[in-house]
Amino acid sequence: MELALTTAAGKASGKVNVSDVAFAREFNEGLVHQAVTAYLAAGRAGTVSQKTRSDVRGGGAKPWKQKGTGRARAGTIRSPLWRGGGKTFAARPQNWSQKLNKKMYRAAMQTILSELVRQERLIVVEKFEVSQPKTKQLLTQLNTLGLHSTMIICEQADQNLALASRNLPHVGVTEVDSIDPVSLVRLEKVLITVAALKKLEEMFA
Question: Which residue, of 49, 70, 98, 123, is most buried by count of CB atoms within 10 Å of its CB?
Fold first, then answer.
């Protein structure tokens, strides 16, 4: 299939051929959801830890005798009902990661890329760069292309683009080797250079 090619000035400059396997796959909502969920779950630290009544220091002696005081019976001052006591259902460290095999991940990425093409959210440019790490300069180029909420994908890490975009909440920059399902779907448009597009095609075709 062919994708429209645009210059940095926002003018059409021809077509670029890409694989139907990577950019014309049928949409599979369940597979995309699973890939995104697995990616987000893998980012969870899972290090939260709370203490139960047996983990809290102290509370070994019975605070008062069982009968005759007029107060409710109590066996320890570290009861979850007491201030300073343990938690009833204490959180424990756990692994939140989900299994997603390579074949499913590849298919999910192909589905996302294909849907971006169908929705006309994938913008292909010959090259995209800024001469200085200036946010104003980056905004000028994005406005020329009519873009606001955009993920910029480059073939290699671009320090100037990374510095120019870090104060923009709706603009992200990543190199093609670091692409993931969430970065492709979280913003309105995806701006990709031809070199990065060809590399992406090799990865998922």
Answer: 123
Question: pLDDT per residue over 28-57, tens digit each?
Answer: 999 999 999 999 999 999 999 999 999 999
Q: Is 133 exposed, middle or buried (0-12, 13-18, 19+ CB in 10 A)?
A: middle
Nearest C-alpha neighbor of 117 from the set 181, 190, 13: 190
pTM above 0.90, yes or no: no
Domain ranges within the chain, ordered by starting residue: 2-41+98-204, 49-92
> Which percentage of the chain shows pLDDT scores above 70?
100
In the sheet with 150-154, reading across from the earlier edge strand, the strands are 12-17, 2-6, 122-125, 189-193, 150-154, 171-175
Q: Token pair for residue 48?
A: 């939260």
- 3-class DSSP state for residue 31? helix
- Give me the CATH code for the 2-41+98-204 domain, please: 3.40.1370.10
Task: Give the Cα separation of 176 and 107 in Å (integer).
Answer: 17
